[in-house]
Write a structure and sequence with these properties.
- The protein is of the alpha/beta class.
- It has 2 domains: about 10-100 and about 215-309, Vaccinia Virus protein VP39 (Rossmann fold, 3-Layer(aba) Sandwich); about 115-215, Putative methyltransferase TM0872, insert domain (DNA polymerase, domain 1, Orthogonal Bundle), CATH 1.10.150.
- It contains 14 helices and 7 strands.
- Strands 3-2-1-4-5-7-6 form a 7-stranded mixed sheet, with helices on both faces.
- Helix 7 (about 145-155) packs antiparallel against helix 8 (about 160-170) and helix 12 packs parallel to helix 13 (about 245-255).
- The longest helix is centred in the last third of the chain and has 15 residues, at about 245-255.
- The protein is globular, with a radius of gyration of 21 Å.
- Bound molecules: S-adenosylmethionine (SAM).
- S-adenosylmethionine binds near residues 32, 34, 52, 77 and 218.
């Protein structure tokens, strides 16, 4: 299957990073390499460290962009950015990009089990070296745990019924495929509620994918590590695709911008908190009508930019 992914908010990111020709940049989410290759072209005397936890993204980039000699690819989770930079002897970076979520290649690959549109084994791992798959979660989590993740990570109103139906169904045999899971969800969500809105399985699939890949819990610590390793005026661009991710980024940026975290009732500041960043985008940047037409998958994308102080 061809590796294809249209980079989202492309011009806005490249402009937002304020790339220096000899700078060192980190692309935490290489994917199809669209952003990475554009950053690399703008820093011919510098370097791009491009990370992905999907070995197929790394291999595709090495084949497709073998002539780009200022890109170092790293097969790892971006949460390990501190160690990755140490390993590469990089003391300070000049900017970083995180383009969260899955690539079109992962979503459309019928073997990876990310999509409710294809029948595939229940997998959903970005990193195929990881042990936990969607199959473990769907068949191994208690009804209460399933309800919690579907409600929290999927923001699904029918979470309790979906969890109940999953647990009922698996009493007979393991749930093995995305197709089976879709038909269970369809039985659980009443017909009337399925008339409007997105595909009835969309939210549950998002929830299970987030749980399999532990997507939310690493965002905050990664932002902190990137800022800690960034030189003055370095830019951090983050693209999110749903409200849960965006809220984490927004709140972390707000925290990093504060110069005091003492309680309001305290007359004198005793904390040694310093402003670490300046927020460049008070409101997130969203795709233009033109981009939405060319790439409907960019619909929910939001870009937030901060600058290191
Ligand atoms: C939306 S795509 C990035 C697309 C890319 N910007 C482009 O221009 O093609 C997200 C990519 O990030 C990777 N990814 C997601 N979370 C990751 C993590 N925690 N560590 C490393 N890579 C991750 C996914 O495997 C996927 O390839």
């Amino acid at each position: 299957m061809e590796f294809s992914h249209k980079p989202v908010l492309f011009d806005e990111c490249i402009e937002g990073l304020k790339i220096k020709e000899d700078g060192i940049y980190v692309d935490c989410t290489l994917g199809g390499g669209g952003h990475t290759s554009a950053i690399a072209a703008k820093c011919p005397k510098g370097k791009v460290i491009a990370i992905d936890q999907d070995i197929e993204a790394i291999n595709n980039f090495k084949t497709k962009y073998h002539d780009l000699d200022n890109v170092v690819t790293v097969y790892d989770n971006f949460k390990n950015i501190g160690n990755i930079l140490k390993r590469l002897n990089v003391e300070k970076i000049d900017g970083a990009l995180i383009d969260l979520g899955v690539s079109s290649y992962q979503l459309d690959n019928p073997e990876r089990g990310f999509s409710y549109m294809n029948d595939a084994p229940l997998d959903m791992r970005m990193d195929s070296g990881q042990k936990v798959t969607a199959r473990h979660i769907v068949n191994g989590y208690t009804e209460e745990e399933l309800k919690r993740i579907i409600s929290e990570y999927g923001e699904e109103n029918w979470a309790a019924r979906i969890a109940k139906f999953i647990v009922e169904e698996r009493k007979e045999a393991f749930i093995e495929t995305t197709g089976q899971l879709v038909s269970i969800i369809k039985k659980a969500v009443p017909k009337g509620a399925r008339k409007d809105g997105p595909h009835p399985a969309k939210r549950t699939f998002q929830a299970i994918r987030i749980e399999v890949n532990r997507e939310l819990e690493i965002i905050e610590e990664t932002i902190q590590s990137l800022v800690d390793n960034m030189g003055k005026k370095g830019r951090l661009c983050i693209i999110t695709f749903h409200s849960l991710e965006d809220r984490i980024v927004k709140n972390k940026f707000k925290y990093l911008e504060k110069d005091c975290i003492c309680p309001e009732s305290q007359p004198v500041c005793t904390c040694d908190k310093k402003k670490e960043i300046k927020i460049i985008t008070r409101k997130p940047i969203i795709p233009t009508e033109e981009e939405l037409e060319y790439n409907p998958r960019s619909r929910s994308a939001k870009l937030r930019i901060a600058e290191k102080r």
